[in-house]
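sanity check this:
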Amino acid sequence: MEDKPLVNRVANSGLITINLEDFFPKEKVVIFDLKDYLYMELILKEKDFRAALKEHDWTQYEGVNLLVICSTDAIIPVWAYMLVASYAEPFAHEIFQGDEETFYKVAFEKALMNFDGAQHEGGRVIIKGCSNKPVPPAAYVMLTKKLRPFAQAIMYGEPCSTVPIFKRPRVLKKK
């Protein structure tokens, strides 16, 4: 009996796999919680806040994505977020007001803004599932929207087990 060479049928199938993890922000995410600067975790005292920010070591945010939040139910004036941003700007890669989930949604929106679906004209595309990073569902929606006008087919999952999402109908030619 003759040994036949192993053939990678997935590699030879012409399927295009897109992994959304490739668009994931590379920089570390760090939270700056305004709660730590509130009097009794309720009130922001401007004079004390300004003094604390002046003394804060902003160099620790060098090259990171800084998320400015308030984890307590306090009313924070808009200028407080602006003041943090003014101190962090020389160091942080990105400064974002909001939680991690919203940050990732916006980051993917920015990353996919320049994605050209036309490069996959007529292609059979698999959008890889099972990510190890918190890729937001919105990123899958955005990518599908970008690909649909061009792709022949869009699938979700892994090449060995996909869920069909979209398939362009075949146009029958008249005889």
Observations:
- The CA atoms of residues 122 and 160 lie 21 Å apart.
- The mean pLDDT is 90.
- Strands lie at 15-18, 29-33, 65-69, 94-97, 124-128, 153-158, 161-167.
- The radius of gyration is 24 Å.
